[in-house]
Fold each of these.
Amino acid sequence: MHIKTTTINNELIVEKDLNSEFLRTATVSRTLVGRYHISILTEDLKKYPVTQQYSESTLVGVDVGIKPFAAISTGENIDNPRFLNKSIKKLKMLQQRVSRKVKASINRKKAVNKLAKQHQLVSNQINNFQHKVSLSLIRENQAVAIETLNLKCMIITN
């Protein structure tokens, strides 16, 4: 199968060849900023081993927290990204500007568009930070165990 779409808002869309027998669904979505994404669900028929043996020197456990982003079993703490503070302050300021605008006005639409772009920027920054942390953990270790917690309840109780 070959995916090809026409240009949307003068943006070049990447063409991709896929094996159609493994393709299940494809969904095109548009963000508030105006970017388009395609999500493709395929089936993987490979057999993966259920358990593997790892040496203890290459095992690491990660404890997700609130103040430090994560605590690693080696004793290292990964702090929350400080660069987000500036972006979140700007997000608050833009939200206040939107709330002060008259509803259904052109200036409100402009302010909402700026707010959506800032939300997208913050989301991209968070995803980028998480990807860099996870990539560094994977490159340094053979196996990573992560504790699953309900952080919303932890924030409320603390």
Amino acid sequence: MIKFVLLLLLASCGFKPLYHSGNNEIFSKVMIAENNSDINRRFYRSISELVTLADDKDKAQYLLKLDIKTAREGVLIDRNSITKRTNVILNVDYVITEIDTGKKIQDGSLKISSGYNTSLSEFASYVSEEDATKNAIRELADEIRKILLML
């Protein structure tokens, strides 16, 4: 009985679960601004695995512009000044605008980091760095998905 009353109260205030499947329609109204940098293409592939975005400007109501900058930062350095652990850092500025009016809906910044171990093998360090970058991009896609859900 208490659960039923709680459901009625939540429904009456307009509450909708954030991860409800009916929320997916908002994504089909969002288009990502073109940016041919490698990191932006990788982000687009990653977010496309999570949601279906508008692929045509005529169908889209919102435009998402991203400025993604990458950096690397040594976080563990041994006595011989050799870096043993490094963070890949994505600094992201985003702006969501209405396509018809050009009105800014939301803007902000995100900072995502992912760490990896370095080794004496350059190839092993490269593979570790690529994995860390993929993880950071995947996390960024999930954060952007959450932001879009709140539109």
